[in-house]
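hey
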């Protein structure tokens, strides 16, 4: 049996971890995964040391509050790695934790494959030096990252974006079922508890302001207790969904917390706007170090406002209500969909399968 350490610290990384694990298990049945993950990793038989519900946190101040528990988790991962002696480690995104982990793993003689590069092109470019020192192989998901890392003398592997084929396959087998003329608005408050705490009260006020003219459906992430959402149903009229793809596929418009879901909505050709609200301290520090002017990936990839962003004090009920009203205009809606459809080349690359094959050929044969 070959032990492999795999670490994804939040929900988006867990999705990609699960896909790679699935294909690696098909290539080699003598693999045993252990590490940090969520629902998708569990479905692929990980020996779970810690759930992403323990590790998913964002913002400087918010991280400081969880620093003690994160240090305990880090120490436990190192302890178990020394015992199990994995053939290699697959670290997925989650840079603040995983860069420190990569350093320790290298000292233990454990090769590190980093899948989904830290966004050092957006901020903290100094991390590149550490990446070059501690990482054996870097796998990126955006084509422009290949050139960026090459300027830093780091060779990368690029197999396409992992969600392209996944969502293309989903749409083939799950046609849009919406026939009602009443519009459906999807709300994605986030996959971390502190994000939901910041975003949901404002979204509830928006739902109450918009009223029954629309269907309102709120997404519930795997690592969020559904009661944290449904407790608002006594003051607001909405439904909940635990199936993001079904919700994205059958909605007319979405309000989405900045993150992976913005890529998914883009690939579903669903018009949306982006929200983000954090503590004032975290926001000020992020603004100080940020090297880009956008936070939504469609905007970053095109260097333009494909979708509107409502950040911090701009995330208000009035601003969001105006944005919803704009999408009642068919011309505006069609124009936005056209822009979204041009962002990703229509590729059928099966990214997770190709990544698994690369890892198998280099590290497991």
């Amino acid at each position: 049996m070959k032990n492999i350490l795999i670490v994804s610290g939040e929900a988006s990384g867990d999705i990609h971890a699960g896909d790679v694990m699935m294909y690696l298990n098909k290539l080699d049945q003598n693999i045993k995964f252990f590490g940090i993950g969520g629902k998708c990793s569990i479905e692929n038989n990980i020996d779970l040391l810690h759930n992403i519900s323990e590790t998913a946190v964002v913002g400087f101040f918010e991280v400081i509050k969880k620093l003690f528990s994160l240090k305990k988790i880090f120490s436990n991962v190192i302890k178990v790695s020394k015992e199990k002696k994995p053939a290699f480690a697959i670290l997925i995104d989650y840079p603040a934790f995983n860069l420190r982990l990569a350093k320790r793993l290298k000292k233990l003689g454990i090769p590190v494959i980093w899948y989904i590069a830290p966004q050092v092109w957006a901020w903290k470019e100094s991390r590149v030096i550490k990446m070059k020192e501690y990482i054996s192989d870097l796998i990126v998901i955006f084509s422009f990252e290949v050139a960026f890392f090459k300027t830093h003398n780091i060779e990368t592997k690029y197999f396409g974006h992992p969600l392209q084929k996944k969502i293309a396959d989903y749409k083939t087998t799950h046609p849009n079922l919406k026939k009602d003329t009443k519009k459906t608005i999807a709300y994605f408050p986030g996959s971390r508890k502190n994000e939901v705490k910041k975003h949901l009260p404002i979204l509830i006020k928006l739902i109450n302001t918009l009223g029954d003219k629309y269907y309102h459906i709120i997404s519930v992430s795997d690592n969020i207790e559904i009661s944290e959402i449904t407790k608002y149903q006594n003051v607001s009229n909405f439904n909940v969904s635990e199936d993001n793809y079904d919700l994205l596929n059958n909605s007319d418009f979405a309000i989405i917390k900045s993150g992976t879901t913005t890529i998914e909505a883009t690939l579903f050709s669903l018009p949306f706007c982006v929200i983000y609200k954090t503590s004032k301290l975290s926001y000020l520090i992020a603004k100080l170090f940020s090297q880009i002017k956008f936070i939504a990936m469609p905007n970053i990839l095109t260097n333009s406002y494909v979708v509107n962003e409502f950040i911090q004090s701009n995330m208000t009920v009035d601003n969001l209500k105006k944005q919803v009203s704009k999408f009642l205009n068919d011309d505006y809606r069609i124009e936005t969909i056209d822009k979204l459809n041009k962002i990703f080349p229509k590729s059928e690359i099966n990214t997770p399968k190709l990544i698994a094959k690369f890892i198998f050929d280099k590290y497991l044969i």
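Residues 67-84 form the longest helix (18 residues). The chain has 18 helices and 13 strands.
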